[in-house]
Amino acid sequence: MQRNERLESMQEAASAAFAPxxxxxxxxxxxxGIRYATAGGLLVADITGNPGGVWRxxxxxxxxxxxxxxxxxxxxxxxMLGQDxxxxxxxxxxxxxxxxxxxxxLVFGTPYRTVVVGxxxxxxAGQATALRDAVARPTRTDRGLRRVVAGVLNGLAADLDxxxxxxxxxxxxxxxxxxxxxxxxxxxxxxxxxxxxxxVLAYCEANLGDPDLSVDSxxxxxxxxxxxxxxxxxxxxxxxxxxxxxRRLQRxxxxxxxxxxxxxxxxxxxxxxxxxxPTHVSRLFRAAYGTSPIGYRRxxxx
Length: 302
Known about the structure:
InterPro entries: AraC-bd_2, AraC_XylS_family_regulators, Homeodomain-like_sf, HTH_AraC. Pfam families: AraC_binding_2, HTH_18. The protein is of the alpha+beta class. The chain has two domains: 182 residues, Jelly Rolls (Sandwich), CATH 2.60.120; 106 residues, Orthogonal Bundle (Arc Repressor Mutant, subunit A), CATH 1.10.10.60. Helices cover 44% and strands 22% of the residues. The protein contains eleven helices and eleven strands. A six-stranded antiparallel sheet has the order 2-3-10-5-8-11, with helices on both faces. A five-stranded antiparallel sheet has the order 1-4-9-6-7. A hairpin with a 2-residue loop joins β6 and β7. About 3% of the residues have low confidence.
């Protein structure tokens, strides 16, 4: 298999396991691979590769992709991770989380090996805010519970097919509890009675591109009344409608700032995030950021 074929094969396999991504290599002969197994809705992967990069740019993110948190135990090699404006070194022995619903990039300066656990975001809906704060903030695994977690992940990688498959749902629940304790201090990640407000926020984040996303549809989806939905956000200083509007505008702004999307019309970007009226989005954008979408793009990309 030729170099480009090996790289494309690896890229295809990793995209199928998690969500569409792009891979690059700094060396002529690409050498890497991915092995993975699933248990209880979680995916555990053992990944190796050459120096290079792994990217999930905005243009690859669609509403049909798997929406995952990726918890990664970095075993060897040098790595830089970037997401949500944070850029950090990830060293061997570090445990870090990132999110497939937003752009990210990993740059490996040497051959590397990492163990990644892919967790559907809805499984962690009650911890959405805490996990967003934890993204791209590595934690060491040389002591205490973190050392236990690292040992478990190392063991799973050593015998993926047998250990992960045999562990099943019980293994998935244990991993969620351990990872939750490490990153949020909460072990009740699988408790269905998690905060309704956090579940609503996670649902809205995952459905910003739906133009029919509304107070009525959110309430119906979660089996609660509109009145109770409003009550959930009483005292937060905002409303659910305002939160949706703000997040949509932030996503639109991020896309406008992306040089790779410089040729994409503003109306297309706005529609991607659920705003179908160009006049309406221009008015909202100007009110939020003091300039029009076109003006904002020109300032950044000129």
